[in-house]
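Per reviewer request, we include the raw input and output of the structure prediction for the construct analysed in the revised manuscript.
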Amino acid sequence: MTTNSTVMTATRPSAIGRFAALDALRGFAILTMVLSGAIPFHILPSWMYHCQVPPPDHKFDPNIPGITWVDLVFPFFLFCLGAAIPFALQRRMEKGLTPLQASAVILKRGFLLFVFAIYQPHFAAGNIKASAEWLPWFYALLGFLLLFPMMMRFPDSLPKQWQWAIRVLGWATAAVVLSRLEYKNEPAHFSLYRSNIILMLLTVSAVFGSFAWLATRENHLLRLGLLGFLMAHRLASEQPGLMKWITDLVSVPKIWYLAYTHYLFIVIPGSIAGDVMLKWLRERRSDEQWNWSTRRLGLITSIGVVMMLVELVGLKARWVELTTLVTAVLVALSLYLTRQPTNDTERLFRQLICWGSYWLLLGMAFEPYEGGIKKDPNTMSYFFVTTGLALYLIVSFTVVLDVWRIKWGAQLLVANGQNPMIAYVGMGHLIVPLLSLTGLMPLLEKVTPGAWLGTLRGVALTLLLAWIVSLFTRWKIYWRT
């Protein structure tokens, strides 16, 4: 490629209707989420854990500002959830799906996610009370296997009656097993109050985010306007008045709270980005004329990674003024590098960078508010900074996957991003139970003692999980809600 005008052939993403970079970011989020739970506890540096639960005691301290890489994985996943909403609903509506039918689809998905949020901790080995030491691991593995008939997307060639029979058998078996299990903590038996908070937040975000998109699918300005009402709820829900009344009316104590919708500060911007990505998938040509050089694209790609490192290091070290200045410089540079787009992909990069720059700068403007950026309790700065970082990384992944067509390594992220439910529970319900039942887990822990060898063990187990999930994806075995 020359440094001036040239022609670059860039293919569409491998799967029709999928945005490869979005799958890669989702895969990155889910695997780093798994890794954060697989590394040794207590003994690593503070930047290896959630910022508000530092070692060695890991006691929650809401007064500690800052973020670490562990604090990025959940908002990145939420951003991907929001961006996927147009992909899930837009084409169905263009084929004749009415808003009422779309609402039913959203509620069905929400119900299945809710079931998943309740189901997972009931089959977690650490929660189960049993007479034999091996039994909790057996039940954890059984819970994983039962999710295949319950959640798997069956091939179209399988007759519908067989699909229903398998589905009913899976759900019935799970119900029988759950009715017989006992638990270490109260309540001693199955309870809707025992849930996975991460999955519950995803459930609320998916339902409310989907309805927000459905109501504003042709009007981005109106969708952004919803954030104003969300801010009103955030500021006024604890004061007597309309917002508190609505909160008390619809929240179900110990199960879900309307405050969970505050993560829509990430999901709604993600849905706008999803609209932009879907439009690009439809309109992009395979023989685009490029005006940007390889060096320019390389700089754009690098900025996404550098920006993330700047925010992580600067905000945790509390170099807020310097971090804000460097962020502004990187934003200006990225806007300069994406000037004068001439084809669909360049215009995509320009739009995503503009949105990412806006959310990043807005997040930095909010940084002093609420005592500095924090994941827990979440702050306005946290919502917007992580949203901006997600957009910058989407651009970096798109250059790597769809412009340069580099598949090595990134393809593993894509495969896991296409199968996130299996990836999420695969460590606790497949790999660790199998290693524990076979006696290999104690041996593995014995030969990898200490902080950094233990971290290496966590990385190896995460890579093993990633490879297993990629096999399921290659074999077209998916769990879908």
